[in-house]
């Protein structure tokens, strides 16, 4: 599987695999220093879970540690989203259920699988696109709500997470929006 931006073949519509959200109508907001959440973990060689594991304040708050700010530095295990540290998965066609993502490795409880990526657009644009997709008979449209004013459209550009309508990992969703 590739996250390099190669077009994925045999998809329902022309589709580009991206590993980061695309911002076509506004700039990506940069996190301000005062908004960065710093945990109180101390790395201990004898205890691998000490570097931002289950007890980390950021993990408990569903927030990733910010590279360069975590007291555990490179030992931090809570930067998977920012480092694109995805689980090994493969996209497969499931009979009668559209596209699905299957695991190519054992997934542990709480493990980060993949990020739902697409184009970040305004709700107004999302409504306009939804109508256009309907008019053109696009059945596999993937627009999800991001917040009160924005949505993510992964219909034409997205990560494999977004085209897998039947993900085979029950209860596997953890939301990290930024
Ligand atoms: Zn921590
Ligand atoms: Zn950390």
UniProtKB/TrEMBL annotation:
CC per GO annotation: chromosome; nucleus
UniProtKB keywords: Chromosome, Methyltransferase, Nucleus, S-adenosyl-L-methionine, Transferase
Cellular localisation: Chromosome; Nucleus
A GO MF term: histone methyltransferase activity
InterPro entries: AWS_dom, SET2_Histone-Lys_MeTrsfase, SET_dom, SET_dom_sf
The SET domain, residue ranges: 87-178
Name of one Pfam family that matches: SET
Keyword Lipid biosynthesis: no
Name the record gives this protein: AWS domain-containing protein
Provenance organism: Microthlaspi erraticum
